[in-house]
Amino acid sequence: MGRRTEQTMRTYHRYLGFFLAGIMAMYAISGIVLIFRNTDYLKKDVQVEKELEPQLTTGDLGKALKKKNLKVDREEGALIHFETGTYNTVTGEAQYLEKRLPLILDKMAKIHKANSDHPLFFLNIFFGLSLLFFVVSAFWMFRPSTPIFKKGLYFTFGGVILTLILLFV
Question: Whole-model pTM above 0.90?
C-alpha cells in the first residue's frame, strides 16, 4: 500500500477519533461503573409504586417487577411481603425500594448494555465497527520499515497475550 493510502488512513483515524471522543469517554465511564453492578456502589434507594394485575403468583410477581429470584418473606392476608417491599394481591399495588444509579450514570449503563431490542442499538454497532477500524488503522500510523512500527508490533504482541490471559483465566 502506498503513501496515499497511509495518509488517508491516518486522516480517517484522526478525525474519527476526535468525533468519537465523547462516546468513547461515555463507554469507558459506564464500563467502569458496570464492573460494580453487583454492589451498591454509587446507587441510591428509590421508592417505587407500581400498579400490577391483582392475584399474581410469586413467580409472576417476580417477572412483573423484573426481579430475578424474588423471595417472599411472608404473606399476611392480601399482602405479600418480599425483600424490599410489598404487593397487595387484591388491588395489585406494589411498593418497594429499588437501588438505582444516578440518572446520567444509569442512562450511560443502559446504552452500554443495549441489545437489539433497544431502539438505538445500531449506534452500538457503529461504535463497535469504529473501534475495529481504530485497531486496523493503527497499523498505518507509521511505515513498516521504521523502528517505531517494529516496536509497536512488540506492544501489539504483548496486548494480544494479555487479552488471551484475560479470556482464559
Answer: no
